[in-house]
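Subject line: Sequence and fold of a protein, written as structure tokens
Body of memo: The sequence and its backbone structure tokens, given next.
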Amino acid sequence: MKKGARSFRILVPSFVKSENEENGEVENYLRGFMCRPVFRLEDTDGEALDYEMLELPDFPLIERAEEWGISVKAIPGNYRYYGYYIPGRKEIALATTEEGVFFHELAHAAHEQIKGALKPGQDSLQEIIAELSAQVLCRMVGKRNRDTTGNSYRYIGRYAEKIKLTPQAACLKVMSETEKVLNLILKPKGVE
């Protein structure tokens, strides 16, 4: 554990071994749940685990991130997010090899350059712009290993609902800003 790391408690199942009266076999039975302290992976030091060894491919448009001084690195996967962009550190962190996730985070970086600064946290309009941009970029570069349109629709829908819009209306609302993001990302090198 890293110095100063604090645990938090989660519910974990509690099993008890008991002999089955019918066949005589010893079986595990769920007795109930109990609280146990756990630490976040980020709060630990040590050797990397095998599942952390994600090798990122050579993404299309990675040169744009490099041109902007943004590092792209692999991180251990989790179920809360597949990637993030940290403006202050100029860093894109990815827990997946999906191009769409890379494009989403690259769109955040481009949007930051256009606006000067992004709102902290997960601002609905910023997330819709990034996801819409990612889907456009996937199609433009011809990278579609699997169709993620439905996932993007649901993602945009969640954020659209927060601002009381339909997914379609939300996309129309951000169309102009999305165009600026795409133009910046796709602009040929050296063109102002």
